Amino acid sequence: xxxxxxxxxxxxxxxxxxxxxxxxxLHVRPLVAELFLTxxxxxxxxxxxxWTTNTRGELSTEExxxxxxxxxxxxxxxxxxxGGEPLIRPDALALMAYAREVGVRHLHLNTNGIRxxxxxxxxxxxxxxxxxxxxxxxxxxxxxxRIRGRLGAFETTTRHLRHLIAERDRLGLKVRMxxxxxxxxxxxxxxxxxxxxxxxxxxxxNLVTDRTFLFRTEAVTGQTDVAGDRLDAALAELEAVARADxxxxxxxxxxxxxxxxxxxxxxxxxxCAESQLKLMVHSRGEVGGCWAHDPTASVRQRPIAEIVDxxxxxxxxxxxxxxxxxxxxxxxxxxxRWRPGTYLADRQWRRGRRSLx
Length: 357
Hints:
The chain has helices at 3-21, 61-73, 92-102, 118-126, 141-148, 153-171, 189-199, 218-223, 228-244, 252-261, 274-277, 304-309, 311-321, 332-337, 340-350, and strands spanning 32-36, 78-82, 106-111, 129-135, 174-181, 202-207, 278-281, 286-287, 297-298. Helix content is 45%, strand content 13%. It has a single domain (28-350), classed as Aldolase class I (TIM Barrel), CATH 3.20.20. The strands form 2 sheets. It has a 7-stranded parallel sheet with strand order 6-5-4-3-2-1-7. Strands 8-9 form a two-stranded antiparallel ribbon. It is an alpha/beta fold.
């Protein structure tokens, strides 16, 4: 990261501290745009509902190009391409390349990895993407394929992930393997940690929730019923793995947050930096809200800058920062990273003065 990038992020989080402690109405413009290129997907995951319907009326290629130009004018620091599964859009690669062409310096891709074949990865890298999250919901085909609803998904995704990791080492990419903790795979936490260490890839733990858009289904609600004794047993094993070798694994503070998630979805003592950092642009042009609160504006009706600076957006995001919300746990890691006390807790854990269970 350049000095300029570091300074800009420091300024952003410094303003968040002022917003939290001194000036709650301070407007902090987002730095990252989360672009949901499509709500549709090529898998049938039990932890998600996007595949249960076929979303129509999504933004056209030219409409997305206009969005990207507006984001550059807004001085957005980074653009995340996500979905659904973004790579099922025929114009996904062209939109990534266009983002780089018009001046977006940092590009990220969230993917289930099915379509991230070596030729496609070559095009993605040529477009300028240098950061990736690849979803793997089990350390074995038995667990992953059952959750993802497709036989052979584990073999395909991990094969493509291994190739991505090889390119990471050559090009200095940022790669994470995302595992969503839920009822059907909580016992696999030690196994997914071992897989991350075998692959040499950072492990990120998503937390299942039925509060966010695309996830509000009865099946997902069932996955949120994670028994405390099973979670504690899995975390105890994972902690033993981490004490032996913590490379590639989540921080102690993140694992501690995970333990509390299923009892206290909001955890209001931790302000939501995620709601301030990210600007959501949905597949049909809706803008605003957050993961669990639906947007009310649209790029098809108003420019993005006008939406972001409007009193309604500012008031909404002040409430979301205070977690006056339904809760979700999305990107809790970011919310923890700007709290100095979490690094002290991590250090105490490394010295054996704290434990997960």
